[in-house]
Each structure stands twice: as structure tokens, then as C-alpha cells.
Design a protein that fits this description.
Blueprint (H helix, E strand, L loop, with lengths): L5 H12 L2 H15 L10 H25 L14 H5 L1 H7 L1 H7 L4 H12 L4 H8 L3 H18 L7 H16 L3 H7 E10 L11 E2 L1 H15 L3 E8 L2 E8 L2 E11 L2 E8 L6 H5 L7
Parallel strand pairs: 1-6
Antiparallel strand pairs: 1-2, 3-4, 4-5, 5-6
Helix pairs in contact: 1-2, 1-3, 2-3, 3-8, 7-9, 8-9, 10-11, 11-12
Amino acid sequence: MFVAHRNLLFTVAYEMLGSAADAEDVLQETWLRWVNVDLDTVRDRRAYLVRITTRQALNRLRTMSRRKEAYVGPWLPEPLLTAPDVAEDVELAESMSMAMMLVLETLAPTERAVFVLREVFDVGYEEIAAAVDKSPAAVRQIAHRARRHVDARRPRQSVSPSETRAALESFRRAFETGDLQGLLDVLAPEVVYMGDGGGIKHAALRPIVGADKVARLFAGMADRAGNVLTFGPAVVNGTPALVVHLGGEFDGVVAVHVVDGRITGLYFVRNPEKLSHVASETPLTRR
């Protein structure tokens, strides 16, 4: 039963935490509690597993907030390799995207748990109430508040995977040829760039806003790196992305949010502590 629902449980934990490593730890904790449960007393085993996972993820989310307060530079979600079938589930792909995960970061822990369970996985209010230790009426209020909060900050609907791939290819080609105008053409005027080095790898210490500033940053990066910095295609967090190699060594992941054919969000994760799953794990499939 645990194995049958492992992908679901992992995805619930990951969407609550934004960290694949912490989601794996939550699953270990869930398993240790599950093996001690008297299954004859459990009416709905899937719901019970989701309940355990949610409670463990909430505990971890509250401790992670202290780690993030001391984090060097912008904190980005840990990139997660996903199989093509995840991209086919439009709702799941949107909820896992870098842009949307950053919106979820602005929710309080219980709000995030309720939003993820209700809006992404369509869990009933009674089940959510049991998972977060609230009354169903309170959960409905929390869900309404979280939905309103997210809707006010939700990124504009991204384009199709093929359009995202086209924008990434234009970005890659402009970068590799040092084409400043090509970068400006593919970046939206209001583009926001965020780099996450975690204090371990070099990265911008704050978001950079505006096509001109972002294009010049990457044009300068291309001049310094020459041909030792290369990009390859991947599917990360349900959308097309780029894996980056520096001198033949895996260096990071570039994810984007694309609207009307232009990049509005550009996210470069270089912190090696967030890249082990991209380098070694099997892509996550649909729940």
C-alpha cells in the first residue's frame, strides 16, 4: 500500500516543502509510522497515509523556516526531474512549476498544506481536517484564505511545453553566441531573474529585474565562460528546462516561466546541495 501511493505521498511532501531531500526524509518518517499501524482499524488507507505525510511535512516545514532565514541569497525550490507524463497533467505541472512553488512559499505552513491538499489533489475537507488537526469549518476558511492569497500572486498562465522549449532554445542560442539582442528579444521587459547558490556557488544575492539588466548579466557570463558553459534539455518541475554544465561538470538547472513566447521568470539553481536529485534520481511520474 505504501509503495503503491509513494509517488502521491512524495509529491504532497515536495509541494509542501519545496525540497526533494526533505520530502524523502518525510517519506521515511511516514513509513516508520505506517508499519506500526494496526491496519484493521484503518478504513481508508490512502487517506491515512496522506494524513501521516502531511503531519510530518508540516513539522518539517516549520523547522525549515529557520534554515531559510539564514540562507545566503534567494532561496529557490529544489529542482525535480519529472517524466513527460507530468507535463500532460496541466494542473499538476502548474502547481510544481518554479514560479508557482515560489508563490506557495508566501503561505503560512497550515495554509500551504490545506491549499496543496485541496487545490492540487482534491482531498476532501474532512480528510484535510484530520491531517492538519483542525475542524472542517476551519479548514474551509483556511482554504478560502489561501486560495485568495495565491490567486492574487499566481503567475500568468504559462504557454505550452513546445512554446517553452522554443523560448529556451532561443535563450540558449543567444547565450552561446553572445548575442545580446537575441537575449533581449526572448526576455520579457519585466523579467525577474533569481539565482540560488546557497553561499556555496557564485550567484546574485538578490533578484534582478528588467530585460536589459538580465540580458547584460548573461551576456557578461557568456563572455567570461566562453564555450565551457553548455546547456542541455530536461523536464524539471513539470516543464521544459535546461541543465547546465561548466567545463563538462554538472553545474545547475535553469528553469523559466514563459508568457506569450517571452521569458518572464528565469531561475538558476546552482547550490550543489539542491542538485543531487537532478543528477541521480529517476524522474518523478504522475501521482
